[in-house]
What does this fold into?
Amino acid sequence: MFRHGKPNEPNANPADDICPVCKSNRYLNPSLEFLINPECYHKMCSTCVDRIFTSGPASCPVIHCGKTLRKKGFHKAFFADLKVEREVDIRKRVGAVFNRRQDEFESLLDWNNYLEEVEGLVFELVEGTSQEKNRAEEKLKMYMEGNALEIEGNRKAGLEEADLERRREKAEKEAAKQRRLAAWREEEEEKADVERERRDVLERLATTDGDAKDITQQAKKIILKKTSARRNLNDALLEANGAQDAALTIRGLKAKKIPVVEKAYDPFGGLDLQPTRYVLRGDYDNEWLNGAKSDPRHMAGGFSMQEYYARTMFEAFSGLGVFIEDEVERREKAIGTAAAAKAAGGELKVEMDVDDDVF
It folds into this structure.
């Protein structure tokens, strides 16, 4: 059956199973192996590759190709779709040249612009026209020649990080293996201790005249003491292994900053609105207010006596902190200081009447 005009089987296209050179097919030879070369990505069987390229470089035997190929460049395709295989190889080649790290950039925006530029270059190499591909290849070559030292340094740094990561994974696997072995040994030793103490208890009960309950309790205490000592020893060994694993750290990483917990939004910007000249009580005894408290017409619509108390007390005490004399004195000083500053800066023009004779 067909879906969307294509066969459901992955190898339904007969051309995918036929060598374009010797016309061998996988139907007659199930062990036939196809190889590709990243220079042109033309697929051919391993027999033709050995026959044509063993003696040295040769042109691609596919019609209208003619690119010079070498035997060491052939490999088995990882993906069934050769377009995907080609894009993966291009990304590897571009990534080996444009291998800068995020910490080399001043901001996240610069890092994202760099990634966008690299992705645009990859797109031109994969989907671009012949002119765009040539321009992208030239740009890749120029960048590789102009930044050879940085590329090599980042490559070595990447290899070191990969090596440290492999060592860390190996150490973690070894530590997990040691923990499992320690747990298994602890369980086996605990079982052996229980069995040994059980035999000792039975022997003492049979040979002595002591109280059976005391003998049993003493045996339990001995088992518990041995178990605790064994666990403490295992914990010490695990801590020692953890200290050794701590040395497998990557140097040069930025220190991680603990995120600051965002506080709740304060519309007053931290301004303390608690009154300082009086204490607002929950209730006040007033004949006029007593009638309003009991009248439902006053309490309807969300009216609150606390709001009335707060507004009344605020209005009563709002002018106690204002002194007219101090306000006038500060205002006169501010005016004199501003005039002096303007005069010093040449902004204030002093006008003099010519008719007034000072002598």
Remarks:
- DSSP finds ten helices and six strands in the chain.
- The CA atoms of residues 4 and 12 lie 14 Å apart.
